[in-house]
Hints:
By secondary structure, the protein is α/β, with parallel strands linked by helices. The protein has 2 domains: 45-116 and 218-253, D-Maltodextrin-Binding Protein, domain 2; 120-215, Periplasmic binding protein-like II (D-Maltodextrin-Binding Protein, domain 2, 3-Layer(aba) Sandwich). 32% of the residues lie in helices and 29% in strands. It has helices at residues 17-37, 53-70, 83-91, 153-164, 178-186, 232-244, and strands spanning 6-9, 12-15, 45-51, 74-80, 97-100, 109-118, 120-124, 144-148, 170-175, 191-194, 207-211, 217-225, 251-253. The strands form 3 sheets. The protein has a 6-stranded mixed β-sheet, sandwiched between helices. A 5-stranded mixed β-sheet has the order 9-8-10-7-11, sandwiched between helices. The longest helix has 21 residues, at 17-37.
Amino acid sequence: MGRTYFERTSGRLTPTQEAMTLNRRLDSLFDALDLIDGTSEPVEETLHLHAPPSFAHTFLVDQIGRFLQMNPHFYVRLEVGTSEEVARAVLEQRSDLGLCSVDYSRAGLKQLPFRSARAVCAMARDHPLAEREEIHPADLDGQDLITFLPRQTRRGQLDRILAQAQSRVHLVAEVSTSFAAAEFASTGLGVSVVNPFPIHYRKPERLEFRPFIAPITYRVNFMVADTRPVPRIARAFMRHLRLYTPNDRFSEKG
């Protein structure tokens, strides 16, 4: 700028008179910037969050608790429902943010990637297949299987994979959630192919997971309405989950 603003004396910088004059002139500029940024006082906000049971009961409870401890001026209202109910609540703007592992392509709904995971076989610790490092579709031939309801997409995908491997399984139970499938498997009822995220955070000690070598990938997404700006508290919570979700060997960042 053609002026000397600091002088170095004995290793220390001392502002000159020109620097003091410039500093006074900048005061009004910083006051204007403060008005643009708004008040620095915390604003109380409520996050309306919707998620399926497998997320709400095994993962979100701890994360919400930590989020509220770090942001005591925030408040969270958590509703639990099916993936379809989550999508509908976000579309109807009854929820600010949804979280689920089902891909939805609908007008007015935006999905933001959070985590991705590969399928695992869930079984009791003393199950014969638990001795293996990984499990292939052919290894399920003759096994008792806990699977999803016929109306669910993942059920049809697994049926096709088993048919291609010529694996004939014995269906012992049909469920609607990965959480229920893993719970049944932990009792020794049979094997189940499930999404390990996030149920591995609170899986029973008697339950084991083994990688299932098949083209089954799960994507966990945030859901927001595409017809309005994402609320500040929803952006803050998504940022919190991305920062504080622990690394694990079953999933990775989306």
